[in-house]
Amino acid sequence: MKLTIYHNGQFWVGVIEECVDSKLTAMRFVFGTEPHDADVLDFLDRTILTLLTKPSKAVTVKTVVERVVNPKRLARIAAKEINTHGISTKAQEALRVQLEGNKQERQITSRQMKEAAQAKKREMAIHKAKQKHRGK
């Protein structure tokens, strides 16, 4: 599991990447203004569990066999990751797939609500017309 916190130009965003059985899932959390250490710790203690339990779409990735890394090389890799900004393209793809799924669900529910409102409006108009003609 990997947590990357970066500034997207407007807000601070945390991206959690989890790779299980060559399937990469990515979750996104918006911290808002610059998060303090206490905010990040609170996120790790409480909020991350709810994000990990939510169903999300996964993207298949190739697994790399990890070897023992020289400590100096490990320090260079850590410094490079600190200096780089953003998230991996596979995580971006996983987020995009998840956002598209959420968008489709939202479109379906809004369409159903709109149709129900139109049907209710039609029924009210019919009922009102019947009430007008009842006295004659």
From TrEMBL:
It comes from the Bacteria. Residues 103-136 are annotated as: Disordered. Residues 127-136 have a biased composition (Basic residues). InterPro entries: UCP021328. Residues 103-126 have a biased composition (Basic and acidic residues). Pfam families: DUF2992. This is DUF2992 family protein.
